Recover the amino acids of this structure.
């Protein structure tokens, strides 16, 4: 099953609010302009399922995600799985555990997001990601044939 990018965000600096973007360059260290870029190889870009935000009545960007994906349960992805995110190729690394910051947004949100907070990905091939782009699971065989 494929998904669609509903929204894109970057945080320009620590403690700042997330800023919506129509398109973002995904470089080998994460999203250009995001303060997390280059800080961690495993935690470059955070994907969250739009259905989780909808269910919890949260606006995109409120929980500091980078990409809101509709039509795909990002929590069903597994470590190492590759995705075509717009024109970028990314690999799933680890789930994001909800932190105390969630409680500052709404009491009980940390628990409500447990096991649903999203998945981090790392960039394998740079590319542009735009709102409306597809998010497609890729197989290793497909990637070898493209090279």
């Amino acid at each position: 099953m494929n998904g669609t990018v509903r929204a894109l965000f970057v945080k320009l600096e620590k403690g700042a609010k997330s800023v919506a973007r129509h398109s973002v360059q995904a470089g080998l260290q994460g999203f250009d302009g995001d303060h997390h870029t280059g800080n961690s190889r495993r935690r470059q870009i955070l994907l969250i399922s739009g259905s989780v935000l909808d269910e919890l009545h949260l606006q995109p960007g409120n929980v500091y995600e980078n990409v809101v994906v509709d039509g795909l349960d990002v929590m069903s992805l597994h470590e190492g799985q590759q995705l075509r995110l717009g024109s970028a190729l990314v690999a799933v690394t680890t789930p994001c555990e909800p932190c105390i910051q969630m409680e500052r947004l709404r009491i009980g949100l940390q628990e409500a997001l447990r096991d649903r907070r999203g998945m981090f990905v790392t960039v394998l091939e740079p590319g542009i990601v735009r709102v409306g782009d597809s998010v497609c699971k890729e197989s290793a065989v497909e990637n070898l044939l493209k090279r």
